[in-house]
Write a structure and sequence with these properties.
The chain is mainly alpha-helical. 46% of the residues lie in helices and 4% in strands.
Length: 229
């Protein structure tokens, strides 16, 4: 069942039953993490991922997302609500820059993520491709550390959207080198690079050897991943 169809039922019990089956089937295959749910608020129909969401309402998305996460996590499978945050993009483009006030973020775009973390007990969160007011979400300390961990009490691990660490340098142009992009991401609170280890491989290692990256940030990222394992 497509997410937007489930959202149209307004039935969190149905969502929980569906997610429980998904969790059991997922674990039976030996898979211990899903890159779901998509809880971005869909307020621009030009955006190509509306059908993956629970729609336009923050409260409905919060309750559906939390029910999904809680059910799957109860089956021993980690959920990854995404994409943190406001991944709609100017003009409906998936990865375009976003310009938003803090009030709008807190009233519209934050609630589903907060609910999935605090009520759904999600153990992972995926950072978004886009930038908010010119700061890439994958290198945004305010989002990944101040809000997610300090304010909401998140204890899991943060993963990148696919290639979003690459995007810090090559899409948003706020890092001169691969090592600089890796440094920005890990120090902001992004624990794991997906889908492949590129910037978090040799470039980050070279920065660490040169003592140009905060060792505590690397230790924290490692600890967050090992805790989940």
């Amino acid at each position: 069942p497509q997410a937007i169809g489930l959202a149209a039922t307004w039935d969190t019990d149905l969502m929980a039953r569906v997610a429980t089956v998904i969790g059991d089937e997922t674990r039976s295959r030996g898979i211990r993490q899903v890159l779901s749910p998509v809880i971005n608020i869909a307020r621009d129909v030009r955006w190509g991922r509306v059908e993956e969401t629970y729609g336009e309402d923050p409260y409905l998305s919060s309750r559906m997302g939390a029910a999904f996460c809680k059910a799957i996590e109860s089956r021993g499978v980690i959920t990854t609500p995404k994409h943190f945050v406001a991944n709609y993009g100017d003009g409906g483009r998936d990865s375009n820059p976003v310009h938003s006030s803090e009030r709008e973020l807190r009233e519209v775009y934050f609630p589903p993520f907060k609910a999935c973390v605090q009520d759904g007990k999600a153990m992972s969160v995926m950072a978004a491709y886009n930038a908010i007011d010119d700061i890439p979400c994958s290198a945004n300390t305010w989002l990944l550390t101040d809000i997610l961990r300090k304010e909401w009490g998140f204890k899991g691990f943060v993963v990148s959207d696919y290639g979003s660490v690459w995007g810090i340098k090559n899409k948003h142009f706020v890092a001169a080198t691969e090592g600089d992009a890796a440094k920005k991401a890990v120090e902001a609170g992004l624990d794991m690079e997906l889908p492949d280890i590129q910037f978090y491989g040799a470039p980050l290692l070279e920065k660490a050897k040169a003592k140009e990256v905060n060792a505590r940030a690397i230790n924290n990222a490692t600890r967050n991943i090992l805790r989940a394992k």
